[in-house]
């Protein structure tokens, strides 16, 4: 699933990702290159079935591309460092940004702030 998502621009089935319900404090990294992507403080439950964040750790962390596949117009998000597919961003998120970064768990790893434990999505 991880290769399918990150390299073939796939999507994991909703509500199946290992990191969907993770509520620990820490940082979400790109599974492929380990670049920091999102802080847990920006994660929220959007109800969409994939981990959702309202902002990345930095502007450089994410690359944005127009995605016209499947008869839809969307904005694809990729790792700004290695170009791995992460998911999509939508303009229906909470304040302060109003954005919802909808990310496949399979494209992420998580590092716990408290004990340094790592978990792959």
What would you note in describing this structure?
The protein is built from 1 helix and 10 strands; from the N terminus they run αββββββββββ. It has a 6-stranded antiparallel beta sheet with strand order 3-4-8-7-6-5. It has a 4-stranded antiparallel beta sheet with strand order 2-1-9-10, with no helix packed on it. It has a single domain (2-112), classed as Peptide methionine sulfoxide reductase (Metal Binding Protein, Guanine Nucleotide Exchange Factor, Chain A, Beta Complex). 6% of the residues lie in helices and 36% in strands. By secondary structure, it is mostly beta strands. The N and C termini lie close together (10 Å). The longest helix has 7 residues, at 2-8. GO terms for molecular function: metal ion binding; peptide-methionine (R)-S-oxide reductase activity. Residues 1-113 form the MsrB domain. Its cofactor is Zn(2+). One of its GO terms (biological process) is response to oxidative stress.
């Amino acid at each position: 699933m991880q290769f399918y998502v990150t390299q073939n621009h796939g999507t994991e089935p909703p509500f199946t990702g290992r990191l969907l319900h993770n509520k620990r404090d820490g940082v979400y990294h790109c599974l492929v290159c380990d670049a920091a992507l999102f802080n847990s403080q920006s994660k929220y439950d959007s109800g969409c079935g994939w981990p959702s964040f309202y902002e990345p750790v930095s502007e450089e962390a994410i690359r944005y591309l127009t995605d016209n596949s499947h008869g839809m117009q969307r904005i694809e998000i990729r790792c700004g460092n290695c170009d791995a597919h992460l998911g999509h961003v939508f303009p229906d998120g909470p304040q302060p940004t109003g954005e919802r970064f909808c990310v496949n768990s399979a494209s992420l790893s998580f590092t716990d702030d408290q004990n340094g434990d790592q978990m792959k999505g």
